[in-house]
Amino acid sequence: MSKASAVRFEGIVQPWGNSLGLRITRSVSELANLKRGAHVTMEITDEGLLIRRQATEPRRPLPFSEATLLDGLTPFTAHADELPILIVSEQDH
Q: Which DSSP state fits 64?
């Protein structure tokens, strides 16, 4: 959305615990492409408060695969001898 096509909405700043909150309506969040949990930046300007959606970073691949992490794992190196032994009584069946 360019500056020329900016859409303006009004809201009311209200108490939220010991802070102040501004409700973002569904229509505003959809137009601004904001979703629950979105990260934003807030900037204080001469005109007030400017809120911008942060660009999402692509997930980086993990440095190790599951196969690499399990390579060479034995019951001894996994300390399997320290695991508790499950005792099942006949009443449990």
A: S
